[in-house]
Specification:
The complex is a heterotrimer of chains A (251), B (161) and C (600). With 251 residues, chain A is of the alpha+beta class. Chain A has two domains: 110 residues, Roll (Ubiquitin-like (UB roll)); 111 residues, no CATH class. Helix content of chain A is 29%, strand content 20%. Chain A has seven helices and eleven strands. A five-stranded mixed sheet of chain A has the order 2-1-5-3-4, sandwiched between helices. In chain A, strands 8-9-10-11 form a four-stranded antiparallel sheet. In chain A, helix 2 runs antiparallel to helix 3. The relative contact order of chain A is 0.09. The longest helix of chain C has 19 residues. Chain C is an alpha/beta fold. Classes of the chains: A alpha+beta (251), B alpha+beta (161), C alpha/beta (600). Chains in contact: A-B, A-C, B-C.
């Protein structure tokens, strides 16, 4: 498994382990490749935004691959800025910017990577979501599974079942925090938070008064069989340290 | 069907399969077959049985065309829009049905009598354009034949050959 | 004299059933019962419900063996005459006629004469529900032979045959099996892709209906070769009859000891089951299909690790298409070299095509690889309906392309058409005449794919959305200068950057119609004209008073009541009522309905 390979990315020689993802090798060597649907928080990547495309030349044959999930199995030469890649990345960027016209980040990235000639494209009114799926991945990895993709094709979207407030959502904001385009909206008052059409009571630390999350998220994080904590992590640690100190003093 | 009947039927369908994710689609199809749609209670019960998020099953129910979350009409009219049928005027049939029933493909009439669906190739290209009502094929169909066909189903005529 | 060898075959493929074949079969059965022929052991005449004989438009088709009489367009009330003709003269009115000639035998009919049947050899000939009929024609001989061979020998035989995946991709089947056999990870799976979803294609459905045991035998041999003990047939939701026949064939195979714990008494085992598709075109893509079998949403995954290594449930999996699997028994029985005798240098054997659209004889045909499109359309298909001018043939469905007249003499195989920017595809062939608008055809496929794409990756989902908007604009007179180039830019990116094969091939209908019919796009965009007279917003209809005979066909066909004129009077279209659907033009037998550019 520890077989080492040397590959060339944009003229730079890089050493890597066989099977490593191209994106990881490139970033380690300071070569920038844009990503949207990839997060370090997860081991598997959906490879669906396709913005990380690069050209790989193996045994004299060139092909377009997505760097985030392309495993390096043999010596190869990689081009991240070939004319083909710049053009196709610009098309993908234009598609994303028209998909999510209300996303500032998409507009910015489009300014940076875009090209001209796309004025003709139609925009999806009021949309911010680029359907990268990170929110669903986050929700599933937490074991809540409250949201999923719904429908297919051009109608695809992310939602709770029937668009109703989900009994499984704990209001933890993981989905909103992982979203690259701030597409998941939520509102918060002094005592409540509303997300995915459901209102949650906020939970505060009994010691320091800091926000711990929602009642449901604190309970979910504690696990089914554990007691629901009433103080935040920092206060709990501090309390523990104080107790230790007390003990030592008397010994 | 009463709620109790529905619940026991759902239980019967689900328990016919081992509690394994790979049978999720089959169980959903059986529910579709039994109820003409997938009731919310069915999704919830199956999710609990398989130990998977309900959202995951909801995702499937909206992804697969054979599954539907809303009840369909008593008579189901399928207009084949495969390439051969399309070239021979399938969309004109849909327009005529809209004129007769007031609904677009994908909708059900208010009285629950008819659902119209635009479907992918039914493999009867030689007979294009094809319309299938409750499993009966109407081949090489001309627009002007449609009102009569609809009427015969509305009146409950059973012989459609 | 009836001597007990007579058999009456009634084609009960989907097309013939839709035409009333079951009623015909019942009527013949009743007729035989009434005459005491059915129960008489000595006479032993039986009605065999067979699968598709191929010439669907002429159905229901009834065939007599061994006299080899072929009757077309049979009705239930022909039953008595048909049973009479067991001993007497053929029923003249039911025989195939062309150019004043009558054809009694199947092989005389030009539709069949040029064909070469391997996959379809038993389809329409045997009762698909009777395993003994399959065995009587050499069925399960290939498996018997395979059981005496090592996996390596089986694979070598398949490699010798040159068989390539007939789902369209053309990957060498032997190589796929060898790779899968090389992994020492168990369990392994063999999966049959029966999710044929191309609109206008029904090759695999008919094969499963008409010769289910051939598919099963192919799967068993494949399982032996790679070391799999479980197999799954993923069959399209819409194919109820195919599923039923496959299920009954599986049951019969278990009963006969061909499936189960001991395949034909050997120490090999295999279990087969059917998974019913959920109604999603994308599930024809291998990774989406496997996701669907696993009970998940049919979304493809990035395929840098191949299914032969990590497929179904992350285990080594061989996925073969129905037609490839149905070719395997013959290859094992007669040897790979015999199979490779037919076909071209790099595409061996035969290919089944479903030929539909504006061609005279629609139906299922199997021809040697390398047959030209011209032979298919004109010699086998009998040419274009009403002898109108040929415009294009669409192959490979939404993943394929439109091929123009100038390429009709190219041999059809895996590689040649690709060099010209088109492809053979899985076998769907739709013939189009001058009344088909190529821009509208492209829009039709893009529309289809907008709904059938899984929606996971950006280029496919968003590219299709934009293509649909642009093509709709072009068809409705809002096309702009530069639209063609923009479609090409989006299309190229989809071809390179989409996640799965569906997305990578999705722009093909657009790209090929632009390549071969660019002038038609330009006419729509620059002159706001639809040369084929299809796009309603750009077309108006008028009746040529010189040609109109006053037959009233057009006014009866008009759904809008826009055509006036009595019998034997010249008819007139009211442009205010006309919805430009084209029904009148289809109905007119005298070419009296003209189309012209609709003024803006």
């Amino acid at each position: 498994m520890n077989e080492m390979l040397t590959i060339t990315i944009d003229g730079v020689e890089c050493t890597c382990q066989k099977g490593e993802y191209l994106y990881d090798v490139a970033t380690r060597n300071g070569i920038w490749i844009p990503v949207l649907c990839r997060s370090d928080a997860f081991d598997d990547h959906r490879a669906c935004c396709r913005i990380c495309i690069v050209e790989v030349e193996e045994r004299g044959r060139r092909k377009v691959v997505t760097a985030c999930v392309y495993p390096i199995e043999q010596e190869c030469t990689v081009y991240t800025k070939s004319e083909k890649i710049l053009e196709e990345r610009a098309v993908i960027m234009a598609l994303l910017a028209h998909r999510a016209p209300d996303s500032e980040r998409m507009a910015e990235m489009n300014k940076f990577m875009g090209r001209s000639g796309f004025d003709r494209l139609i925009s999806v009114d009021g949309e911010k979501c680029i359907l990268c799926g990170l929110c669903v991945q986050a929700c599933n990895s937490l074991g809540t599974g409250a949201i999923s993709t719904v429908l297919r094709g051009t109608d695809k979207k992310v939602d709770t079942p029937y668009g109703n407030p989900s009994a499984f959502c704990v209001g933890c904001l993981s989905c909103a925090n992982v979203c690259p385009t701030d597409a998941i909206e939520y509102t918060q008052t002094d005592t409540t938070r509303t997300i995915w059409n459901r209102e949650f009571d906020l939970a505060f630390c009994e010691e320091c008064g800091s926000l711990m999350g929602t009642t449901e998220s604190v309970r979910h994080a504690a696990g089914e069989d554990s007691e629901v904590p009433s103080v935040c992590d920092a206060c709990r640690k501090k309390k523990l340290a104080d107790e230790m100190m007390q003990t030592y003093r008397y010994v | 069907m009463t709620e109790i009947d529905q619940a026991s039927k759902i239980g019967e369908i689900i328990e016919a399969y081992p509690a394994d994710q790979r049978f999720a689609l089959a169980a959903l199809q059986d529910m579709q077959h039994a109820f003409n749609f997938i009731p919310e209670e069915g999704l919830a019960a199956l999710a609990e049985y398989l130990g998977c998020p309900q959202a995951q099953l909801y995702s499937m129910a909206t992804f697969y065309k054979a599954l539907s979350l809303t009840p369909k009409g008593e008579h189901i009219i399928k207009i084949c829009n495969g390439t051969a049928c399309h070239l021979r005027g399938a969309m004109n049939l849909a327009t005529e049905l809209k004129r007769d029933l007031g609904i677009e493909p994908g909708q059900t009439t208010e009285d629950g009598a008819f659902s119209v669906e635009l479907v992918n190739c039914l493999g009867s290209c030689a007979l294009a354009p094809v319309m299938v009502v409750d499993g009966n094929y109407h081949n090489k169909l001309r627009v002007e034949q449609i009102p009569g066909i609809i009427e015969s189903y509305a009146e409950g005529v059973t012989d459609h050959d | 004299m009836i001597n007990g060898t007579e058999r009456i075959l009634v084609c009960c493929g989907t097309g013939c059933i839709a035409n009333g074949a079951l009623g015909v079969a019942d009527a013949i059965q009743k007729e035989l019962d009434a005459r005491g022929l059915a129960d008489d052991v000595k006479l032993d005449v039986s009605v065999v419900r067979t699968g598709c004989s191929g010439e669907c438009e002429q159905g229901p088709i009834v065939r007599f063996m061994p006299r080899d009489l072929m009757y077309y367009r049979v009705k239930a009330n022909d039953a008595a005459a048909i049973v009479d003709s067991l001993e007497g003269e053929p029923v003249q009115k039911l025989l195939f006629k062309k150019d004043g000639q009558t054809y009694e035998h199947m092989d005389d009919n030009p539709f069949y004469a040029l064909q070469h049947k391997v996959v379809l050899k038993d389809v329409g000939v045997i009762d698909p529900l009777d395993i003994n009929e399959y065995i009587a024609r050499g069925g399960y001989e290939g498996l018997k032979k395979a059981l005496t061979m090592t996996p390596d020998e089986i694979i070598t035989e398949v490699e010798k045959s040159g068989l390539r995946g007939k789902g369209g991709a053309g990957f060498p089947t032997g190589r796929k099996w060898r790779t899968a056999a090389g992994y020492d990870v168990f369990p392994k799976y063999i999966v049959c892709n029966g999710d044929e979803g191309d609109p206008g294609a029904f090759m695999d459905g008919s094969t499963m209906e008409g010769s289910p045991h051939a598919v099963i035998e192919g799967m068993i041999i494949g399982a032996l070769a790679i070391g799999a003990e479980e197999g799954v047939l993923y069959i399209r939701d819409e194919y109820a009859l195919a599923r039923d026949h496959i299920q009954r064939a599986i049951d019969a195979a278990y009963e006969a000891g061909i499936l189960g714990d001991s395949i034909m008494g050997s120490d090999h085992k295999l279990d087969l089951s059917i998974v019913r598709g959920g109604g999603a075109f994308v599930c024809g893509e291998s990774t989406a299909l496997m996701a669907s079998i696993e009970g998940r949403v049919g979304e493809p995954r990035a395929k840098y690790i191949r299914s032969v290594q990590r497929g179904l449930f992350d285990h080594p999996t061989v996925l073969n298409n129905v037609e490839s699997l149905a070719s395997i028994p013959t290859i094992l029985r007669d040897g790979g070299e015999a199979y490779a005798q037919v076909g071209t240098e790099r595409s061996k054997g035969t290919k089944v095509f479903a030929m539909v659209g504006k061609v005279k004889h629609t139906g299922l045909v199997e021809v040697p690889m390398g047959t030209t499109l011209r032979t298919l359309i004109y010699d086998i298909g009998g040419g274009i309906i009403d002898d109108r001018p040929f415009k294009a043939i669409q192959t490979g469905g939404p993943s394929g392309g439109c091929i123009p007249e100038e390429l009709l003499d190219l041999p059809v195989d895996f590689d040649t058409l690709v060099e010209y920017g088109a492809m053979m595809g899985s076998g769907g062939m739709i013939v189009m005449d001058d009344r088909s608008c190529m821009v509208e055809v492209a829009r039709y496929y893009v529309d289809f794919l907008c709904e059938e794409s899984c929606g996971k990756c950006t280029p496919c989902r968003e590219g299709l959305r934009q293509m649909r908007a642009i093509l709709t604009d072009i068809c409705e007179g809002r096309g702009k200068h530069g639209d063609i180039e923009l479609l090409e830019r989006i299309g190229r990116t989809m071809q390179d950057a989409s996640l799965c094969a569906l997305g990578r091939t999705a722009p093909n209908p657009v790209m090929t119609t632009i390549k071969f019919f660019r002038d038609e796009y330009e006419a729509h965009i620059e002159r706001k004209e639809c040369p084929a007279g299809v796009c309603a917003k750009l077309t108006q209809f008028a009746i040529d008073p010189e040609a109109c005979t006053g037959c009233t066909m057009c006014s009866r066909a008009c759904p809008a009541g826009a055509i006036s004129g009595g019998r034997k009077e010249t008819h007139v279209i009211d442009p205010h009522l006309c919805i430009a659907c084209g029904s009148c033009r289809e109905a007119c037998r005298f070419n009296a309905v003209l189309t012209e550019r609709r003024p803006a």
